[in-house]
Design goal:
The protein is of the alpha+beta class. It has five helices and 22 strands. The protein folds into two domains: 178 residues, Cupredoxins -  blue copper proteins (Immunoglobulin-like, Sandwich); 125 residues, Cupredoxins -  blue copper proteins (Immunoglobulin-like, Sandwich). Bound molecules: 2-acetamido-2-deoxy-beta-D-glucopyranose (9 copies).
Length: 365
């Protein structure tokens, strides 16, 4: 159907057709950019596939994450990290004014459920906007994402995650592992030579872990060494930095308990954990006031997304403060909301305006 139309249009003139470049998964993000385009019959959309393994698959507004029978589908386009000549798939546009909906059908990590959707000519108002489409896609995410979100804060809400299985190879041994597939997290791979990472707890009597933000591979260990004062190493979650993990999620996390060390001690107690997957690990010091002072750490935080280490520290300072003093107002200085899809949409609008200019420029020739 598309093919016929292209031939017809080619015979008319190509001077009036516009080509839209849409990146698929640029910068490791589960997103198309721009998130939607306004195209006319005869135009083309070039999908530029970035590293990872994505698709552009037509779906419907009602079922964003279900491939449409007989609809457009690029199939999986695996692209190795560092690829320079990115593969491009071209979609000729034949329909005028009818919205066309797409998603990435990659099930590992549930790309669609994490909002990786795209549209051509979505209505700007009414019920079927791009925003509504993306919200519907996100709603398909499994109930695991229903964490207790504190929406008062201007910090990002937790990113959805899903459980995935992968085959891990280490030398001659191969095994299957279940891991937390989290936006931006790397697939599980064991350290070729497991190493022990050392984190000093309360270095120079300051309320810090040093280093506070590390990367560790599967099989590695992390040893916390307690310096003078009376600290803990307690696992928490991104959304509730200053609460034990089981309190916010029901999953029992690791805990060192209080480790009092006096100023003249020369032997420092230690606490060791083993890294079992590549999902981020968050933690804090359970001593009164320390978490609010920013005494938190992260292992394998994903810096490319909103749940990065800096935001974790910010959230710890905010929630830690209000948990001890209710008179503190939530920070409102940033002016940002935790409405991430909105931010994405306004970016898309900006890109769209830019593309609008290039169409106009094209028509002038
Ligand atoms: C799309 O990408 C191609 C190849 O990189 C480039 O030549 C073209 O100018 C781009 N078009 C637009 C509208 O940005
Ligand atoms: C791409 O993803 C699909 C679906 O998960 C999988 O079947 C396929 O093996 C993947 N390809 C590569 C090269 O990883
Ligand atoms: C939009 O949704 C609302 C609430 O579900 C419904 O009452 C209304 O009829 C819908 N409008 C259209 C144009 O479908
Ligand atoms: C949630 O996951 C379970 C198990 O994978 C599946 O059976 C169920 O259909 C999923 N629910 C939704 C709403 O996707
Ligand atoms: C991977 O293999 C090496 C060498 O056999 C071994 O020392 C290491 O513990 C293995 N890693 C894991 C995570 O099993
Ligand atoms: C360490 O802190 C905990 C909690 O505040 C307290 O119960 C404990 O007595 C302290 N230990 C010492 C030796 O100060
Ligand atoms: C890794 O797995 C071991 C054994 O199941 C468990 O004791 C340990 O707590 C796990 N590590 C983390 C960081 O959850
Ligand atoms: C955390 O570590 C990552 C990776 O080393 C780094 O890019 C990032 O800047 C660090 N963030 C902070 C707040 O230190
Ligand atoms: C996100 O923005 C939309 C549109 O402004 C609004 O209707 C919705 O309530 C917002 N959601 C949140 C969580 O703030």
């Amino acid at each position: 159907m598309f093919g016929t139309l292209v031939l017809v249009l080619a015979g008319v003139s190509s001077a009036y057709s516009a080509t839209f470049n849409v990146t698929v998964g640029a910068d490791g993000q589960l997103a198309y950019s721009p998130a939607f385009v306004r195209a006319a019959p005869g135009d083309f959309v070039n999908f530029i596939f970035n590293p990872k393994n994505h698709t552009v698959t037509q779906s419907s507004f009602a079922q964003p994450c279900t491939p449409l029978d007989g609809g457009y589908d690029t199939g999986f386009v695996p692209v190795a990290a560092g690829t320079v000549d990115l593969p491009v798939m071209q979609l000729p546009i034949s329909q005028a004014d009818t919205p066309i909906w797409f998603h990435c059908k990659q099930p590992v990590g549930n790309h669609c459920g994490q909002g990786m959707v795209f549209a051509i000519n979505p209505p700007t108002e009414g019920n079927n906007t791009f925003d509504a489409f993306q919200a519907q896609a996100r709603a398909t995410l499994n109930a695991t994402a229903t964490t207790s979100v504190t929406s008062v804060w201007s910090t990002p809400s937790p990113q959805p995650w899903a459980t995935a299985t992968a085959t891990v190879t280490n030398g001659t041994s191969v095994w299957t592992t279940t891991y937390t597939s989290y936006l931006g997290s790397v697939p599980p791979s064991p350290a070729p030579q497991p190493i022990d990472h050392k984190i000093i707890v309360g270095v120079d009597t300051q309320f810090i872990y040093s280093p506070a933000n590390i990367s560790a591979a599967i099989g590695d260990t992390v040893t916390f060494e307690f310096h003078p004062k009376n600290h803990t190493v307690t696992q928490s979650s991104f959304s509730n930095p200053c609460q034990p993990l089981e309190q916010s999620t029901g999953t029992v996390g690791f805990k060192s308990g209080f480790q009092p060390v006096s100023a003249d001690d020369t032997e420092f107690p230690t606490f060791r954990i083993t890294i079992n997957d590549t999902a981020p690990i968050w933690g804090y010091c359970g001593q009164t006031g320390h978490c609010a002072a920013g005494m938190v750490f992260a292992i394998n935080a994903v810096e490319s997304g909103p749940n990065n280490f800096a935001n974790f520290v910010k959230l710890a300072k905010q929630t830690g403060a209000t948990s001890t003093s209710t008179s503190l107002a939530p920070a409102t200085t940033t002016g940002s909301s935790n409405n991430n899809s909105n931010a994405a949409l306004s970016n898309a609008k900006i890109s769209w305006i830019a593309i609008g200019f290039s169409i106009v420029a094209g028509l002038m020739f």
